[in-house]
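Sanity check

After download, print the first record. It should look like this:
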Amino acid sequence: MEIRFRGSLAKAEYLDAVRLASHPVQRRQSITFQLWVLFLSFATVFALLGAWQLANSQTVSAIFFVLALTFAVLGFKLRSVPSQTWESSEDIRAIQEGVATADALELTTSRSQARNLWSSFGGYGLYKDVLILGAQSGIFVPITKRMFTTDHDWAQFLQLVSDKLPQKFRMSASIAPRPTSRALLVLGVLLLTVMILIFRGGK
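Expected structure tokens:
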């Protein structure tokens, strides 16, 4: 049996693949956390502390504002890394052709050709119409439904992958809250904590 596919990734599909790769399956459910959210949270806290110290010490206040600006810049840069990677990498956007058999997955682009035994992959993940194959080296291979000629070919491919590999990545609306919602939740908790500390310190 041979299952053939051909196509390239759209930006939205690549971003879905990156998000999926950051959600490994765990025995115990835990809240996944993106680093940019943490940095923006620190930026908010330092900005509030800077405003609090403005009347007492302009030097201390300036230090807090510098820290806030630093963490804010780092946070926004981290958030944009996947988009910048997709835009700057021709390999990611290149058209790839694949042939999946019971033994291996062959991938060909204009720059490379490789035959990967299924044992070289550590697992797979599926989100919407995007599937990723996680290599032992930590690199993941994204493959989408659009690359297949028919729904039957896509279904056969999914069945082959699930027969050969364990599911190592999983993301759904119920267990993976949107980054924006998660960021608002974290910022809200930190803001409340800082405001309580300021209120108590002012007494």
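If your output differs, re-run the checksum step. Summary of this record's structure: The domain at 3-201 is CATH 2.30.29.30 (PH-domain like).
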